Amino acid sequence: MRKFIVAITLLLLWLVPNTKGQNRNGKVEITGDVKISELVTKHIEFNERMQTVPGYRVQIAALSGANSRNQAFDLKRRFKAEYPDIEVYIIFTEPNFRVKVGDFTSKLDAYVFMQRIKDTYPGTIVKENVYPIHPDLSNIIPESEDDEGL
Question: Residue 87 and which of 21, 32, 139, 143 are 20 to 30 A apart at CA?
């Protein structure tokens, strides 16, 4: 019986060092499709190329209620008819529709424009904003036919 216990102990001692191969020193290895890792890499590269610049917009209305969506789009049409060169943005953050105008790079420019329209659009305020600087994507060539539609 004693020889049996010694043999089992020796066998266990011989097996224990072989199980250490599973230790990866805290590193996680994920195995998956290569296309997914390529897509993630492309996504990271694209986001690194996207740059933003701080700016300001003038909020001319914050609407909520049953007819707020229609009111926001009516206000947008009315503003565009009066100021065709100024961009108008409708932002929906439940339950509010906010109508913002302009792409101003300085706060002073936004305040000057706000003073110009405040009689027609009471309650206007200047809001900080971040604008994306869109990179020139015209020189990007698809790597495969699968990438053509992207």
Answer: 139
